[in-house]
Design goal:
Chain B: It comes from Sesamum indicum (Oriental sesame). Chain B: Residues 49-344 form the Exostosin GT47 domain. Chain B: It is a single-pass type II membrane protein. The complex is a heterodimer of chains A (494) and B (416). Chain A has 494 residues and is α/β, with parallel strands linked by helices. Chain A has helices at 2-8, 35-54, 59-66, 115-136, 156-168, 186-193, 212-233, 250-255, 393-396, 451-463, 471-493; strands at 76-77, 106-107, 144-150, 174-181, 198-204, 238-241, 247-248, 262-264, 266-269, 300-305, 311-315, 346-349, 390-391, 399-403. Chain A has a domain at 139-265 and 340-393: Spore Coat Polysaccharide Biosynthesis Protein SpsA, Chain A (Alpha-Beta Complex). Chain A has 11 helices and 14 strands. Chain A has a 7-stranded mixed beta sheet, with helices on both faces. In chain A, strands 7-14-9-10-11 form a 5-stranded mixed beta sheet. A two-stranded antiparallel ribbon of chain A has the order 1-2. In chain A, helix 10 crosses helix 11 (471-493). The longest helix of chain A is centred in the last third of the chain and has 23 residues, at 471-493. Chain A is elongated. Chain B has 2 domains: 39-205 and 374-389 and 400-412, no CATH class; 209-365, Rossmann fold (3-Layer(aba) Sandwich). In chain B, the strands form 2 sheets. A 5-stranded parallel beta sheet of chain B has the order 1-2-3-4-5. Chain B has a 5-stranded parallel beta sheet with strand order 7-6-8-9-10. In chain B, strand 6, helix 8 and strand 7 form a beta-alpha-beta unit. The chains are: A alpha/beta (494), B alpha/beta (416).
């Protein structure tokens, strides 16, 4: 039956089904074969044949031509039906305005989004989300104090921009304390002023050393200095240690609002090996926070809990795995290892470093820590008793923070503030600039500047430097790029 | 001294009063009480306010039909079956028909399904007629009032008109035998033949467990402005457009298909329920009939329903103030839908979300198994209770007859 075949093409959502709207609607009831129905059948068949010949359904044109279109100035109708729709036996009982039958499809003259309205809608969305946060999210959010040690180098813009965007997306108040090794520079200042956050830019008058060991120690000193500033200014909030090359998930910032005094989160260590000789990259698996010697899993540092979710110990980084292959100096092509427990995995209530505040008994006085210039490895040194640390992120099972150190060679040059002024005019063919394969001399010979290296570095920085690879592969790739550029230039010149 | 003590007492009084005020304010901050035109009736308990007698019909009217096709328990017309089960074990049921206020006839008229799962209404008039003949001959209560104190659940497309096509349904009109009875139906459109005054409009059945299983945490930010999934053109039955949904759905598509604020498409994603919880507005346009389960889903998931169906009557309209909760857009105003939605003031939108967050609202739209307080079953009973007491004039004098038992198409008169 016709109706049942029509049923087969039915979509799921339509409430009921219809036969074709043509007048030859035969119900399941017996239809009387009157001359009218035969006539309509013949007409229908004729129309089908004509459509077949023409190649398209011409009923729309017929309707358009036969019935005049009364289009109002603000709407147009696509199907050409008249403004009073065909009145079938719709039985408009009782003066209903709603009529059954074919209606026009109303389309406005320019059916495209209006930017002003899109902006209004976005404001509505923002306000609704703010309301959602205030109802279901963290109640009484505290200010986030992010402590970042940094210094001017090739990858600083890359790392700081990433961190800056993460902090700009945090829905709470943020105070960004940036400690810069080598003193206060305009380069860093201009970079962090783009964030729009409240920043405290502190210069630390020691140049960043080239060896990783020394760099880690200096970073700890810089963080202590930042905490001193927090203490002096009596900044109130939650202190987190956001290293510029780390990656933070936004859930992390919601999670650390739960901390009362000291909290610890799990940090995924992306100790990757950049070169192709090192073998497979470790497979990243986030569910298992236990580091396994045999399986190639992502090493994770953080709190370890027993089944009743109490802190019982720490997962730390085992550097024995990587002993032969660890990087010694910045820009070394080997893998950069973290220390046992990184600062980044801890959050503190800023009142712990204040001078006179209601502190619990197990925290040492701030002045005692690191007083003799000894290396403070992690904020655990602030505590008399390590068991008071609160494990966050469902007891360390959730990894919301990843530690990574990727740097270009310490002597690699880049244009100041990444502005190339005056514009480049290089006509040096690649054959005349052999790429130096010799490693730089350590630890203090970073000032050796080769002019060819400078120009090629400039090209490299323009075309390919925004990539997280170790220096060696970067050099290989950019050498290829320079080749292409130079050859095209040759052909253009000729 | 006395003045000092008096001042202290006043201060205490002010503090107490303000704390109570703050308490009240805090409670209403998240949700708001819902009261419709009949007052604050959403939370009424029908037990004790009415008594319902359930007729014992032979199995061929209900259980056998269900046995033949168990799909009837999950489609959107399943309310008739669940209402029967609810009434069998409810506290309002009485076994003494003399004290009953309402009489219920359990006949499953919407359970004759095609292979696709859509109900065929062609035998329903005969089935209903046969059931009424049975109860009028075996019990005296039908003839006492000619059905004025009986109610029937007819959840099909156009209610008791028993047809899926609107013109045909209008042509048939409501089954003549049901003219005096109270109809509990999903279809509601003002000034329409298939809606009697005094009918109770109910939401279509949507599976509550399935919806509960797809809840996402309420902290997930609502980032979709307008959401809709469904057909815009029904190519099988109305290829040219303009007939299906009176052209309204096609108009939505043509005007807003490239608008980034409108997440509309014909896909069937597996994350449909999750997406609704991430949207601020959910479109509920008419289809072949003005009602759809989208309204229920929007209310359960906290998405403000945008109802595009002229003259529609929404479920439990006297208990739920739908104008305060949803947004009504006339079909002719669809091209201006984006302007309309963005010009709603923000406090209105937040208020609507607060009303939707009220758990009574969500409960009233659902048919949970087993029944829970304030759910749709209880709202139906509340609606029936509000119609009590029956007017004295519905009781017919002996020998008086109002209904015409031979009215209607000839094919309806055949026995079932």
């Amino acid at each position: 039956m016709k109706q049942l075949t029509a049923l087969q093409q039915q979509g799921r959502r339509s409430n009921s089904f219809r036969g074709a709207s043509s007048p030859l609607d035969a119900g399941v009831d017996d239809s009387i074969r009157s001359p009218t129905t035969i006539f309509w059948l013949v007409l229908h068949g004729l129309c089908c044949l004509i459509s077949l010949v023409l190649g398209f359904r011409f009923s729309r044109i017929v309707f358009f031509l036969l019935f005049s279109t009364a289009s109002s100035p603000s709407t147009t109708t696509i199907s050409g039906a008249t403004s009073p729709p065909e009145r079938n036996i719709s039985g408009v009982g009782g003066g209903s305005r709603v009529v059954v039958g074919r209606h026009g499809i109303l389309i406005r003259p320019w059916p495209h989004p209006d930017p002003a309205e899109v902006m209004k809608a976005h404001k509505i969305i923002e306000r609704v989300q703010l309301e959602q946060r205030s109802q279901y999210g963290v109640k009484g959010p505290r200010t986030l104090i992010a402590v970042t040690p940094t210094y001017v180098r090739t990858f600083q813009t890359l790392h700081l921009t990433g961190l800056m965007h993460s902090l700009m997306n945090v829905p709470y108040d943020v105070i960004w304390v940036v400690v810069e090794a080598g003193g206060h520079t305009n380069e860093t200042a201009s970079l962090i002023s783009k964030s729009g956050l409240r920043t405290i830019h502190i210069g630390f008058d020691t140049k960043m050393p080239v060896l990783w060991e020394d760099r880690h120690k200096l970073e700890s000193k810089m963080r202590l200095h930042a905490l001193r500033v927090v203490r002096e200014k009596r900044l109130d909030g939650i202190v987190m240690f956001a290293d510029d090359s780390n990656m933070h998930a936004l859930e992390l910032f919601d999670e650390i609002q739960k901390v009362k005094w000291v909290g610890a989160v799990s940090v995924g260590i992306l100790a990757h090996s950049g070169g192709s000789e090192e073998g497979e990259l470790p497979v990243i698996q986030r569910d298992d926070s236990k580091k396994d010697d045999k399986d190639p899993q992502l090493p994770v540092q953080g709190p370890a809990c027993n089944s009743s979710n109490h802190l019982v110990g720490w997962h730390t980084f085992d550097s024995l795995l990587f002993l032969e292959k660890s990087a010694r100096y910045i820009g070394d092509r080997a893998v950069v290892l973290p220390r046992k427990l990184e600062w980044a995995g801890f959050v503190l209530n800023s009142r712990l470093v204040w001078e006179d505040a209601d502190k619990p008994g197990w925290v040492k006085e701030f002045e005692e820590v690191g007083r003799d210039g000894e290396d403070v490895e992690s904020p655990l040194s602030f505590l008399n008793d390590a068991s008071v640390v609160e494990p966050l992120g469902s007891c360390g099972r959730k990894v919301m923070l990843w530690w990574l150190r990727v740097e270009a060679r310490a002597d690699s040059k880049f244009p100041a503030r990444w502005i190339i002024d005056p514009p480049l005019e290089i006509t040096v063919p690649a054959k005349r600039t052999p790429w130096p394969d010799a490693p730089p001399e350590l630890p203090s010979s970073v000032e050796k500047v080769i002019s060819i290296q400078e120009t090629t570095d400039k090209r490299a920085s323009k075309s390919g430097s925004r990539r997280k690879r170790s220096s060696r592969s970067k050099r290989k790739h950019t050498a290829k790029v320079i080749d292409e550029h130079v050859s095209t230039r040759h052909s253009a010149d000729n | 001294m006395r003045i000092g003590r008096w001042v202290l007492a006043v201060i205490f009084g002010i503090v107490f009063w303000s704390r109570i005020e703050a308490f009240k304010f805090h409670r209403t901050q998240q949700t708001e009480r819902i009261s419709g035109s009949a007052g604050d009736v959403l939370e009424d308990d029908p037990v004790g306010r009415l008594k319902v007698f359930v007729y014992e019909l032979p199995r061929k009217y209900n259980k056998k039909i269900l046995q033949k096709d168990p799909r009837c328990l999950t489609h959107m017309f399943a309310a008739e079956i669940f209402m029967h089960r609810f009434l069998l074990s409810s506290a309002v049921r009485t076994f003494n028909p003399e004290e009953a206020d309402w009489f219920y006839t359990p006949v499953y008229t919407t359970c004759d399904l095609t292979a696709n799962g859509l109900p065929l209404p062609f035998k329903s008039p005969r089935m209903m007629r046969s059931a009424i003949q049975l109860i009028s001959s075996n019990w005296p209560y039908w003839n006492r009032t000619e059905g004025a104190d009986h109610f029937f659940i007819v959840p099909h497309d156009f209610g008791a008109c028993f047809h899926y096509q609107e013109e045909k349904a209008i042509e048939r009109g409501i089954l003549p035998l049901l003219q005096r009875a109270t109809l509990v139906q999903t279809f509601g459109q003002r000034n329409h033949v298939c809606l009697n005054d005094g009918s109770i409009i109910i939401p279509p059945y949507a599976p509550p467990q399935k919806m509960q299983a797809h809840l996402i945490p309420p902290t997930t930010p609502r980032s979709i402005f307008v959401y809709f999934r469904g057909l815009f053109y029904d190519v099988g039955n109305d290829p040219e457009g303009g007939y299906y949904a009176r052209g309204a759905r096609a108009s939505v598509w043509e005007n807003f298909k490239d608008n980034p604020l409108f997440d509309i498409s014909t896909e069937h994603p597996t994350t449909y329920y999750e997406d609704m919880q991430r949207a601020i507005f959910c479109l509920c346009p008419l289809g072949w009939a003005p009602w759809s389960p989208r309204l229920v889903e929007a209310v359960v998931f906290g998405c403000i329903p945008v109802i595009i169906a002229d003259d529609i009557v929404l479920p439990f309209a006297d208990a739920i103030p739908w104008e305060d909760i949803g947004v009504f857009v006339a079909e002719k105003d669809v091209p201006k839908l984006d302007t309309i939605l963005t010009s709603i003031p923000i406090y209105e939108i937040l208020r609507k979300q607060r009303l939707l967050a009220n758990p009574s609202m969500k409960q009233a739209m659902l048919f949970p198994q087993p029944a829970q307080p304030r759910d749709a079953f209880h709202q139906i009973l509340n609606g029936l209770a509000r119609k009590l007491p029956h007017d004295k004039s519905v009781y017919l004098k002996p020998g008086e007859k109002i209904l015409n038992w031979t009215a209607g198409p000839v094919s309806d008169l055949k026995p079932w």
